[in-house]
Amino acid sequence: MPEASLVEAASGLVPASEGWFVVNAAEAAWVGNPDFGWRCSFEANGPALRESPELEQVLFAQLGFRLHVLEPGRPSGLYHAESEQEDFLVLAGECLLVVEEEERRLRAWDFVHCPSGTRHVFVGTDAPCVLLMTGARADEGTIVYPLSEAAVRHGAAAAAETRSPHEAYAPHPHWQPGRPAPDGLPWEVA
Hints:
Elements: E1 6-9, E2 12-15, E3 31-33, E4 37-40, H1 46-49, E5 63-70, E6 81-82, E7 86-92, E8 94-99, E9 102-107, E10 111-114, E11 120-124, E12 129-136, E13 143-144, H2 149-153, H3 165-169, E14 176-177
Antiparallel strand pairs: 1-2, 3-4, 3-14, 4-5, 5-12, 6-13, 7-10, 7-12, 8-9, 8-11
């Protein structure tokens, strides 16, 4: 397997081809959304390439990986359930997990396993929280954004139940290339 080359996109490095590679999270491309925080997927995908249209999209075929920085009081996205397994590890800080209409406080090194069909979302608490998110990928994968009283309380619910990400996220801004503030993130050197 050849090594993939890394190229500079609008907010950091992305792979320009298939193959193995090594990139530091502090140098990888990030995208931000005022409603949902910051994320880094380590792939060359839509939001990371928005301001670099000359670059080709490069996605991981079997597993998706993402670092997500939750801002205080902000959700990671909208309450949802996917047809494929997802797993999460809190790397730094604390957050609230809304899962199956229950709320659980999480702290650094807490691991969350969501088998297919598990309804969930994360919400930032008092300080930035860094999550490692991973999920299986399948061509026939599906997602649903169910109605949820618990998610509504945290601003993390779609307006109406839908299976369309486009409909669920329509009221929210698009992700844009950018970087989270470095203060307190685990890869910053003191």
